[in-house]
Amino acid sequence: MTDHTPRLLDALDAFEDGIYIISEDYTVEYMNKFMKELFGEGVGKKCHEVLIGSDKPCDWCKHDEVFIKNETNHSEVYIESVDKTFFLSELPVTNQDGTKSKLSIYRDLTRRVQREAKLKSSKESYQRLFKHVGCGVFVSSKQGRFLDVNPALLKMLGYQDKEEFLSLDLARDVYLSPEDRRIYTDIIEKKGKVVDYELRWRQRDGNILHILLTSIVRYDVKGNILGYEGIVVDQTRRKKHETEIKEAHDFLDKIISCSPNAIMVMDMEGIISLWNQVAEDVFGVKSEQVVGKMSIQQIFSNKVAKNVTEMMKDEKFGGKGKLNSYPLNFKREDGELVEGNLSASIIYDGNGNELASVAIFVDLKERLQTERELSAARQHLLQSEKLAAMGRLTSQIAHELNNPLFGIMNTLELMKTEIPPENKRRRLLDMSLSEIERLAEMLKKMLSFSKPDQAERQAIDINVVIDELMLLYEKRFRENSIKVMIDLAEKPGLIFASKDQLRQVFINLFSNAMYAMPDGGNLEITTKVVPKKLFIIVKDTGTGIKPEHIKKIFDSFFTTKTESVQGVGLGLSVCYGFIKDHGGEIIVESEEGQWTRFSIMLPLADK
Ligand code: ADP
Question: Of 103, 262, 306, 559, whose CB neighbour count within 10 A is largest?
């Protein structure tokens, strides 16, 4: 071995590069520790034997350049036996004795090469991802330009030319308003990032694009903001979907709230989950009072709710889970009567499990009321027709009877002049005459009943009519121990009526009242005005009327006065005819054994 200074050689052992020296005939003169660890001890052997196990020099060997041309050489070599790549430096060294050797330094590049390869491959995969990922990816500058964008973002915003896209002014061309971008940059610069930030961008054709933006800030080494990078997810379809769902929901809501019927939805325990406007009106409870708070059992009774559920479950009433029509009448909490028809059905899920029930209530109160009024009107019409027919008949009878009756009366009066008062027969004659007079009075009543609409009408103050009658009746009331209490409206207004007929009405009412109070009692006469109407109330504390009679008392010829010829049952039917004829109403209320009250309503005359 040539004289390489041993101290220097020891130092070479500390290197992490492989170092060896060979003589001109390829014999290894020195190997440092790193080299020995890699290839084993090789001093004295041919270098190619040690490195590649060959008896020929290595391909890369720059033997001649070093030994002949005295040049230093650098190259990159891969040695298979150790699976490593080296950066190789071969340089000539002149020994002290004038001979030449070659110093080779093998710097292990494997790790760097591997790192670079890895870096390259990961860069490629990032590029692939950037290119093919479904969401938009961008890098933008602080000033507001895109520096790079992926094809997905180009497509999302409707651009084909990337150059055109990169020239856009973000605040002006992409954000709906520059203000939007300012708010976004404020937030991201404060927080360093934004996640799922909702924004609206503008596409190339001007359409609005709803996006979710997730991005971070890019800083330079000094910490200054360079710009932003992030990903963009298109929300337009989701937004559209949301809008469609909302529209469908609103539409359904409108149908439910505009329905003319009450619609209610309950869970299977009966807890109310939907209560529309009509339900509020019909049942008199607000939606916020019931939804989630009350059960249907609290609105209807437990019994009704149970009946409805049972009928829904029974196929007989409209098929499985259905109840076609159930008449439902009940009293609301405030006492008002609810009348109508309920239909209901169970809502099932996909597996046939019961989820909820929906009920629709059709309010028939008004219809039933109209029907009742119609029926009453029909009844009244019948009554009027009966009255008219009766009127014609009675008028004929009365006419027929009138003349012979007056003939008899005249004859009896004549006979009276011939029979002196002290004569016994004279009493019989007087009795006959008085009965004939009663008969004549009855005929008069019958005639007035038959011609109700022939009387002349004039503007009348009802208080005057009552006052005049009281003058006539005062004495009779007193004699019958009847205390009269009069409470007249101060200014009752005028009614357009026949004074005679009104008198007849009160005479009939007073006579009946007197008859009902044989042992005396109280008679109250009241007049009251409500807008455009006059009320006259006559109340006595007499025998009252039996409930089974009360419906019939305005019928012609209905009477309970059977003894002698006390009544013919025409009084009230005449009253009824007169009042109706004046466009008014007459009703009776009574409690048997206690009192009877007749209330008359007459329309006030227009000024
Ligand atoms: P009449 O007086 O000839 O019987 P009305 O038509 O006047 O005929 O009366 C019919 C019936 O109504 C009477 O018979 C009586 O039973 C009943 N009535 C009328 N007014 C009263 C009253 N104030 N109190 C009790 N019953 C009455």
Answer: 262
The two beta strands, 482-487 and 521-530, are parallel
CA distance 403 to 409: 10
In this structure, CATH architecture of domain 133-240: 2-Layer Sandwich (3.30)
- Indicate if ligand 1 lies below 6 Å from the C-beta of 495: no
Chain position carrying tokens 């027919």: 389
pTM over 0.70: no
Cβ contact 151:159 at 8 Å: no
Answer yes or no: is pLDDT of 115 > 90: no
438, 446, 553: which to mutate for ligand 1, most atoms within 8 A of CB? 553
Q: Which atom of ligand 1 is nearest to the CA of 511?
A: 2
Least confident residue range of 114-118, 338-342, 420-424, 449-453: 449-453
In the CATH scheme, what is the code of domain 6-110?
3.30.450.20
Residue 528: pLDDT over 90: yes
3-state secondary structure of 299: helix
**263 in contact with ligand 1, CB cutoff 6 A:** no
Q: Is the CB of 517 under 6 A from ligand 1?
A: no
Report the pLDDT value the prediction gives residue 565, as an integer from 0 to 100. 47
Q: Which of 121-125, 250-254, 397-401 has the lowest mean pLDDT?
A: 397-401
Cβ(504) – ligand 1 distance below 6 Å: no
pLDDT of residue 317: 82
Ligand 1 contact, 60 CB (< 6 A): no
Does the CB atom of residue 521 touch ligand 1 within 6 A? no
Index of the ligand 1 atom closest to the CA of residue 572: 6
- Considering only CA atoms, give the Rg of the chain: 60
pLDDT at 188: 92
Task: Confirm if 604 and 495 have CB atoms less than 8 A apart.
Answer: yes
Q: In sequence order, what DSSP letters do the residues of 195-238 get, joined into one string?
A: EEEEEEEE-TTS-EEEEEEEEEEEE-TTS-EEEEEEEEEE-HHH
Same fold, 6-110 and 259-355: yes
DSSP assignment of 577-605:
HHHHHTT-EEEEEEETTTEEEEEEEEEPP
